[in-house]
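[Help] Beginner question about ligand-bound structures

Sorry if this is basic. My supervisor gave me a protein sequence and a SMILES string for fe (ii) ion and asked me to "get the holo structure". I don't really know what that means in practice or what format the answer should be in. Inputs are pasted below exactly as I got them.
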Amino acid sequence: MSHRRMSHYRMPILEKKGFVVLSRDNVVIEPEEWRSLEYVDWKSSGDTRFAPLASAYGDIECNAFWHFDPPKPDKDGIWIDSQVDVAPTIAAAAKVPGANVGRVRIIELQPNSYADALYNSHLDDNNRLNDEGGWVVRSFRNLTDDGESYMVLREDVKDPSTETRIALPAGARVIVDSERMWHSVWHTGDEPRYCLITSYESGPELEKWIFENDPIDDVEVPELDPTCAAEQEAQAQARRDARTAHYGYDPTTVMSEA
Ligand SMILES: [Fe+2]
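Answer (accepted):
No worries, everyone starts somewhere. Holo just means with the ligand present. The predicted complex, written as structure tokens, is below.
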């Protein structure tokens, strides 16, 4: 079974690398906004909580849209008034492209190691039930100022040579085909990291907005100490293998919930 159908509209700009980095958003967002939101516990990779701004039917929950009756793809999300009211600038940032949104939420991530990030790396099931229209991709807009933390992207989770690390200062923006690219965040800070994550439907609105914000995919990747990186890689892959053996399949792949 495959969720990929050739009829989807896919943005050519993501074809080569599966992601683009945009210029930093210089809109100032006060911490009070993300601190005032209601968070829910939701199973995800790593030590995380989420605060939804838009959900399948407007409730404060983070379930994938296909879990509901009627089920739907990760599009046509319903804004949650009580959350938008306390975080208007964050909601406005998600609405700026004018593209159809699915899930919109804030992630709270506790500090972790590079090995943890590699262990947590996963693919998103963005296009389940998405039978027509645009391929759903995700936008990540960092809220906290985490210039020493990195989004870790890999084309092949087992191949470090396919990795790109993207620094996450406040306002950092990355558009990722997160059903194609393995992703997670290595958060080196002392405090939790907060980030706005928005599911968008690919289309002319999103494409126009991306081109207005200086997209690049040739990111300069900061060097890692090779010995340390190799140690963390081995540790992470051993933990990944043990998890796969435990479940009998790799639960971080996009098809794992099928
Ligand atoms: Fe993800």
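A couple of things worth pointing out: The CA atoms of residues 118 and 236 lie 6 Å apart. The beta strands are 19-22, 48-55, 78-79, 101-109, 136-142, 146-154, 163-168, 173-176, 182-186, 193-201. Feel free to follow up in the thread.
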